[in-house]
Amino acid sequence: MTDNRGQLSNFLFSIFYFLFSAILISGCAVKTNLPLEMAPTPGAVGIMHTVQRGETLWRLSRIYNLDLDKIIQANRITDTTIIKPGQNIFIPGVKKDVSFSNYNDNSGFIWPVKGKIAAYFKSEKDHLINKGVNIKAKFGADVLSSRAGVVSFCADNLAGYGKTIIIDHNDGFVTIYAYNSQNLVKANDRVTQGMAIAKVGVNERAGVAMLHFEIRKGNKPQNPIHYLPLAK
User: Fold this and answer.
1) What is the pLDDT of residue 52?
2) How far, in Å, CA of 106 to CA of 108, rounded?
3) Do the beta carbons of residue 162 and residue 204 sit within 8 Å?
4) At 15, which helix (H) or strand (E)?
5) Which residues contact 15 (CB under 8 A, 6 or more apart)?
6) Which residues contact 209 (CB under 8 A, 6 or more apart)?
7) What are phi and psi for residue 157, nearest 5 degrees?
8) Contacts of 84 (CB under 8 A, 6+ apart)
9) Cα separations (Å) of 62 from 76, 98, 105, 134, 190?
10) Are residues 78 and 72 in contact, defined by beta-carbon separation less than 8 angstroms?
């Protein structure tokens, strides 16, 4: 009888533990933003676009001929939001969805280096506001040109940034690559997308190997996350 009661007690405890764990996990689970599905303002005209692999907010703005800031505001997108395939993005003022597969555009940006983002756009440290992103990477790794263009600036010791390269993409956009340990190009060199232009160096203030990367439009800093595809 004692053994049966013990077995029953263990069985009931197992059920209780399982249910309690399920409730705890569901209550503490971190919500993902997949799909995004931001509820549009009641009465707002527009469509819900399902993000496909390779799409970026900038490319969506080009596909739908819509200002990037309008998409960002309509979806309440933050400076750290990275859109992913399967997310639903509200496109304001548009009545018809556009197939990304039918849109040929080879002028997008690519990641200049593989690594983890250490500091996001507009993050603040030591009273300095980040005008791009800092990407932790292996010291000496290749820094790639995010787009094709012409090197408009190349410095060996720019104050606060060290070895720095600026590439003009001839359409109002420029990209900036800093904290380099070595620059592999010089001013007026023409570069192709994906070409190695520098080697990853160290952020002296942080003492960590990383790349400082900026995208500017008309000299106005842009959030690189809104222009770069989801890292594989």
Assistant:
1) 86
2) 6
3) yes
4) helix 2-28
5) none
6) 136, 137, 138, 139, 200, 201, 202, 203
7) -155, 65
8) 33, 34, 51, 230
9) 19, 11, 9, 26, 25
10) no
Give the C-alpha separation, 175 to 145, whole Å: 8
* Nearest by Cα to 107 from 215, 23, 203, 232: 215
Contacts of residue 164, defined as CB under 8 A and 6 or more positions apart, other chains included, come to: 153, 154, 155, 158, 176, 177, 178, 180
Tokens of 209: 């190997």
Whole-number Cα distances in Å, 211 to 44, 137, 194, 207: 41, 7, 15, 12
Give the separation between CA 92 and CA 48, rounded to whole angstroms: 9
Residue with tokens 């039918």: 102
∠ CA(110), CA(56), CA(132), 5° rounding?
60
pLDDT, averaged in runs of 10, over the chain (232 residues): 50 40 31 44 81 88 91 89 88 77 68 94 87 96 98 95 96 97 98 98 92 95 92 53
CA distance 93 to 85: 22
> Among candidates 86, 105, 58, which has minimal Cα distance to 217?
58
